[in-house]
Amino acid sequence: MSTSAHTPRSLLVTGGAGFIGSHLVRHLLAAHRDVRVVTLDALTYAGNPMNLADVQAAHGGRHRLVQGDICDGALVARLLAEHAVDTIVHLAAESHVDRSIDGPLAFVRTNVLGTATLLDAARRAWAGRADVRFHHVSTDEVYGSLGADGRFREDTPYDPSSPYSASKAGSDHLVRAWGRTYGLPVTITNCSNNYGPYQYPEKLIPLMVLNALSGRPLPVYGDGQQIRDWLYVQDHCEAIWLAATRGRPGETYNVGGDNQPTNLTIVKTLCHILDELVPLPTHESYEKLIRFVQDRPGHDRRYAMDIRKIAQELGWRPKETLETGLLKTVKWYLDHPEWVRSVHSQGDYTGWLEKNYANRSQSVP
Ligand code: NAD
Ligand code: TYD
To answer: Could you tell me the pLDDT band of residue 362, with boundaries at 50, 70 and 90?
Structure first.
């Protein structure tokens, strides 16, 4: 199938101080010497300038971090004009399902209104140009939950369960609408769960690693048999770049790691890695810290991605296996205590845990 080439020169990356965004900015400045990047990030609890400190040191002349809100249309319009932006890669979002259960409206504001604000600023700034691209970074969670069989395809109907996934679904629809109605050259990637360095420790993998290292409980929701499709963050960044530069305008590409371990398997694997790297003085396994806690409301049971379209059209495949990726990730957290300290100083998120921990808690049999 044919692809459509786009050559970015000046990019606006929203959410570039967050987990995936910071990897993307690092990746594209290192791999493409002729591009300039403006990172627009509100620096919420999830955005951390430390995530970009090495990028700033290595490529400061081609990178600028602007603290600001994607809902601020005047600011977005000014950045697009001042930097002659020809490519927007949009990652800024409220991204954590548990927080969306506690406070859904922030998700609607940033993920829905923020995306619409960006799209409209792009439409006005680019007025009919074809040599531009709006790439939207989205999630597999828009498709809802799978039963025992099957995988999400690009034409799977949307069926989101959480306020987070519903707000991301809304943002995907807006992106397609701006493509169809105004002819804005848009592409979308819907990706499965990412993991790797710099991930804020409210998400499963870094939370488990850091809790284990500080002797705190490892809270497994429900029976721990939920299944996610895990992708190493660097692989995701390569997929985003390919879709933004070679993907066909108007198209969606599913991205995933082609693996489906249960949550409990992930947690036990992390415990075993830590047992090897940082053995407990008692020679017990970190597994002793596992606690089953009350399930998340509306908890999706299984995600699995069909990645044949991006593989066939754009030649993308994940390079990292779950085994090598998890080992790298645990080592990174062990080697970066100053980053962990800076994140913890903002206060841990324990809202969901605090509310539910007392209700049901027992160690693994
Ligand atoms: P993250 O929470 O680590 O980072 C989000 C960033 O957006 C932060 O730097 C934050 O400061 C910024 N931000 C939040 N609200 C903003 C606003 N109003 N204006 C400007 N900046 C704002 O998230 P992440 O895990 O890096 O996810 C990035 C994107 O990828 C999100 O759109 C998410 O939906 C999507 N995604 C994430 C995963 C995953 O597993 N983490 C999987 C698929 C898709
Ligand atoms: P998470 O990292 O929050 O990503 P998402 O909800 O977007 O998939 O959670 C991954 C899975 O791990 C999900 O099924 C919920 C589960 N989970 C736990 O069992 N315990 C935890 O403390 C967390 C944060 C998640």
So the answer is: very low
Shortest CA distance to 131 belongs to which of 313, 314, 5, 2?
5
Q: For position 108, what pLDDT does the model report?
A: 98
255: CB partners within 8 A, 6+ apart: 189, 190, 191, 192, 231, 236, 239, 305, 307, 310, 316
Residue type, 256: G
b/e code 71-98 from CB counts within 10 Å (16+ = b):
bbbebbbebbeebebbbbbbbbbbbbbb
Whether residue 149 lies in the annotated active site: no
Closest CA to 32 of 245, 197, 231, 234: 245
Tokens standing for residue 269: 């694997």
Q: Which of 69, 91, 108 to mutate to test the pocket of ligand 1 (most atoms within 8 A of CB)?
A: 91
If DSSP codes are grouped into helix, strand and coil, which group holds residue 336? coil
Helix (H) or strand (E) holding 337: helix 337-344
Inter-residue contact 14 to 41 (CB < 8 Å):
yes
Over the stretch 242-290, which tens digit does the pLDDT of each residue have? 999 999 999 999 999 999 999 999 999 999 999 999 999 999 999 999 9
- Phi/psi of residue 81, each to 5°? -75, -50
Q: Which residues line ligand 2 (CB under 6 A)?
A: 97, 193, 203-204, 207, 219-221, 226, 228, 263, 296
CA 181 to each of CA 71, 169, 176, 178: distance values in angstroms, whole numbers, following the listed order:
21, 18, 8, 5
What are the phi and psi torsion angles at 341 (to 5°)?
A: -65, -40
Cα end-to-end span (Å), the chain: 52
pLDDT value at position 348? 61
Q: Which of 164, 200, 303, 349 is catalytic?
A: 164
pTM above 0.90, yes or no: yes
Strand ranges of the sheet holding 290-293, from the earlier edge strand across to the other edge: 218-221, 290-293, 362-363
Tell me the residue type at 198.
Y
